[in-house]
Amino acid sequence: MTANDQPHRDRPDDGRPDLPNGMMLEVDDLTVDFDTPSGNLRAVDGVTLRLAERETLAIVGESGSGKSVLSRTLINLLAGNGRRSGSIRIGGRDIDQLSKAERKHFFGVEVAMIFQDPMTSLNPVKRIGVQITEAMRYHLDLSASAADKRALRLLELVHIPSPAERMKQYPHELSGGMRQRVVIAMALACEPRLLIADEPTTALDVTVQKTILDLLDELRQERRMSMILVTHDLGVAEGRADRIAVMYAGRIREITTTDRLFADMRHPYTEALLNSIPRPDLPSHTRLHPIPGRPPNLLDPPKGCAFAPRCRYAQPDCLESEPPLDGPHGHDWACFHPVGTPEGAAALAANEEAGVTAAGLSMSESEEEFV
Ligand SMILES: Nc1ncnc2c1ncn2[C@@H]1O[C@H](COP(=O)(O)OP(=O)(O)OP(=O)(O)O)[C@@H](O)[C@H]1O
Ligand code: SF4
Ligand SMILES: [Mg+2]
């Protein structure tokens, strides 16, 4: 993979020293396999990516594409039946080379994660205040009163009204939106440099979603954090992420700046994803086009490109070998017949004429769903 450009907006300086090479995260050839009763399941397959200091990278893909496994692996949380290969460097440090004390510091202070289900991060029988202060007291060695003061400030920061009263409440006494703000406050408690937010708003209604995502973005800019924003919705990433990585069946299929992805996408899966989401710039009656078929069974993935059975561009070569992820000027894609190129146009025209793709997808059936 080529090195991608890592543009970021101007952000205020908080006095923290810059990282040696400006890189928050460097992931190389990361693969995660799970032993299951039905055999080996490769959930993450050769992922290489870079995240610059203060940058937001969105990881987008359908359910089961490996977003959560990748995120959890980045913070060193791998299920017991999992094996990882490849390297992860955070702030220039290889996480496999950390001592026990450094590991505790890294994954307690430097890196924080907001998990997909906020309730899994909250203990139902502990008051909110205790839950926020626990991590600070443990990792930052703060006194009870200093931690309390800081927790109050954090709750204010995430716009929780009457924070002193909220500190005394239990999670079930709060609305879903308020609970998610508490989870964000907890993640920010130790001032992480890298925040990984795994679908931070899926359980919430659309207006609360927007408020929480805007809040996260605001906090990221204020606090000079880098962020990985995991979502199945390209629309959520638009306008909030500097770059987007599109994942399918454990691999990154396209990665570039957000603007370029929307204006000049190359991967047929990116195009299909974009056609399947509501767009604010299109009239509300515009039909959405679900992607035909289903993602592959990762216990028995197809030979060649894993998207081929669902791809309207698929040609015989797609069934033989996996296309490499590559491209010019910070825009990489993994496709033999990319969208917006003469090869892609020829592949689509040939399939339309034949009525069927090389992988057996009926063009008229997919058209019904697609056009
Ligand atoms: N511990 C495990 N053992 C076996 N398979 C697992 C394990 N954890 C995850 N998987 C499998 O890994 C694949 C990727 O799962 P993952 O949770 O990362 O998907 P995702 O992209 O986060 O999906 P969603 O959008 O639904 O959250 C899935 O096929 C899942 O069933
Ligand atoms: S054109 Fe071929 S390589 Fe590209 S996404 Fe479709 S099946 Fe995969
Ligand atoms: Mg997930």
Number of helices: 13
Distance from first to last alpha carbon: 33 Å
In the CATH hierarchy, the architecture of the largest domain is 3-Layer(aba) Sandwich
Determine Rg (CA atoms, Å). 22 Å
Strand order of the largest sheet: 6-7-8-3-9-10-11
CATH class of the largest domain: Alpha Beta
Estimate percent helicity.
25-40%
Largest beta-sheet characterization: 7 strands, mixed
What are the distinct ligands in this entry? Answer: adenosine-5'-triphosphate, iron/sulfur cluster, magnesium ion
Assign the CATH superfamily of the largest domain. P-loop containing nucleotide triphosphate hydrolases
CATH fold-level name of the largest domain: Rossmann fold
Oligomer: single chain
Beta content: 15-25%
Mean pLDDT: 89
How many structural domains are formed by the residues? 2
Commentary on this structure:
The protein is α/β, with parallel strands linked by helices and 371 residues long. The chain has 2 domains: 23-258, P-loop containing nucleotide triphosphate hydrolases (Rossmann fold, 3-Layer(aba) Sandwich), CATH 3.40.50.300; 264-370, no CATH class. It is 34% helix and 20% strand. The protein has helices at 67-74, 100-110, 118-121, 128-140, 144-157, 163-167, 176-188, 206-223, 234-237, 258-263, 268-275, 342-354, 363-370; strands spanning 23-36, 39-52, 56-60, 82-90, 93-94, 111-114, 194-198, 226-231, 243-248, 251-257, 332-333. The strands form 2 sheets. Strands 6-7-8-3-9-10-11 form a 7-stranded mixed sheet, with helices on both faces. Strands 2-1-4-5 form a 4-stranded antiparallel sheet, covered by helices on one side. The chain is globular and about 75 Å long. Magnesium ion (MG) is lined by residues 67-68, 116, 198-199. Adenosine-5'-triphosphate is lined by residues 34, 36, 41, 43, 61, 63-69, 79, 81-82, 116, 232, 298.
